[in-house]
Amino acid sequence: MSRYPLLIDGALQDAEHYDEVLDPANGQSVGEAARASQAQLEQAVQAAARAQPAWAAAADSRRAALRQAAAVVREHAAELAELITREQGRPLHFTQGEVAGVAATFEHYAGLPQAPEQVLRDDGERLVRIVQRPLGVVAAITPWNVPLILLALKLAPALHAGNALVAKPSEHTPLSTLLLARLLKDVFPAGVLNVVAGAGEVGERLARHPRVRHITFTGSVATGKRLYAGGADDFKRLTLELGGNDAALVLEDADLDAIVEPLFWGAFWNSGQVCFAIKRLYVHESLFERLVAALAERAGRTRLGHGLDAQTELGPLTNRQQLERVEALVADARANGARIHSGGQRLEGPGHFYPPTIVSGIGTGVALVDEEQFGPLLPVIPFRDVEDAIAQANASHYGLGASVWSRDETRGAAIAARLEAGLAWVNQHLDIHPGAPKGGHKWSGLGYEGGQRGYEAFSELQVINVARR
Fold this sequence. Notes:
Structural class: alpha/beta
Oligomer: single chain
Shape: globular
């Protein structure tokens, strides 16, 4: 059985305890992840603090290291993608795309110029300029659904800006992150990149450490609230990308034949385990019955299986807790009068398989509509008046993503602009523009990731004001 050590201060470290990671498709062991002790966590943070000043002073070295990291990832792409599939469950062609995205992210930041200083005044009396300074030690805490790309989107800008980083992956999918750490061990100077692993308490101790100045986290609202509260005493900077309950509105003029496939994948990519997947579908009553039938037909012929099988379209849910939550939501929906048009129960046999499930007959007040399911369930709700649909879409604590589907792109964009969401699409869903910041409204987040706005979160401004004699 393979064991995956920690990366601390430029060296791979074993641990006193290891946690076994199981393949969610068959329950077989994938490997064991080292569980960081409190002493090892302390060592990682202190190593980052020591390494950060020299790293911040070497802009050319930072860009060169990120460029080398991209090359290393590409060299080991097959190994990384297979491991993600085995521990997380997604089909291999999707995890190959994730690994390619990791390399592209490193390469993008390797080519990003350093932020220029801004001169406000330069005359015989004063030189006043604004510079950007790195924060110091950054804690990156990542989820299990897309483990490596979500790490890269934190790691690359944080390191480019001159910070050192301690990363902590989810206990459900730690192996691919620990493998990446092993591959990058000699790319970055000792202490600049550290990776620890373990259960949630490791992440919480990391986030509360007084040497950590910025926490960048992707995960649940509940954990985000704890991190927010825990960082208050130390006035830590935070970037929180949290949950979503994304609404999609299908207007009466939508092209039914053209939208079934993108709506299906907008809801069910990664078996619905995406924070900004479609989780509520509001459909004009004139199209409702036909669209429900078309989505149910598409769901019914979806090929579920192990992600290493080339025929597989959807893999299992990543962990038992998520499978049990999906089962509970469907049971509650049935108790509230729901109609199940496809799926509706887990598959027999090993693995956490639950087929894509189309549900109607429920609305506001039922958990499947009001809460984030994070699984292969899609409630479909009819509407007559688009104003009512907009109001229902906005009547949520969440505000991560939303989409509008219409032949009239101008009208669709006008309605999208009224939806309370950080990401608003027309005739598509899940598309992330590489230069655009990603963030949520309301409970769906704090701050931004990606784009210039996200990059600037990893630095602080300093005004230098020089009096000239």
